[in-house]
Amino acid sequence: MKKLNMKKIMSLLLALTMVFALVACSKKETNKPQDESDLSYVKNNGKLIIGYTNYAPMNYTDENGIFTGFDTELATLVSGKLGLEPEFVEINWDTKEVELNAKSIDCIWNGLTINDERKATMEITKPYVKNAQVVLVKEGTVYDDTSSLIGKTVVAEQGSAGEDTIEADENLKQANYVPKTLQTDCLMELKSGTADAAVLDLTLAKTMTGNGTSYEDIIIVDHLAEENYGVAFRKGS
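Given the sequence above, the corresponding structure tokens read:
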């Protein structure tokens, strides 16, 4: 019982932090009339349109068909605090900035890694979750370090931090990199044997692999880049 109460308290504190971050973003440009701010825009619409991809444990549909997840619950709570109805829209992660700028969505709340490139094109909140990029292989695979994957087929989600990690690693740059639409697609490729390794978010990897999952024979063998998650809004909002 105490553990449950603490989780509720932490969720509330995180939600309040996000509320303040959203309001701060809306007031950043003092020369912009209030009725043109993003906060006014979403309030006039009466809803916050949240872009996401299917990514456990952040945003996903459980075995009972209920859409849930850490980010899903947090975004719903924050929307309520702002007096808005949350609307979740599944997006293509590789074109997330395009959808944000086109106002197809109002924010990206889906385990988004904070980096300088994204901060240059989007307004991003302060970090709320720590994460890392990890290497996954099938159990029994010989792996010492990333040099073991030179010439091997490695998958990651297109446009993701995993892809950035591959491009930044001297050994992984010598692998046969194949981008996939979703991180879950990478796990399927690994399970079927069409990929030798995957570079994915630690949060997803720990949730979807191991005992009692559909990927019991897939294991984490290396931790690479550490990172933080934030929520992204339109630049200048």
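Residues 132-227 form a domain with the D-Maltodextrin-Binding Protein; domain 2 fold (CATH 3.40.190.10). Try to locate this feature in the token string yourself.
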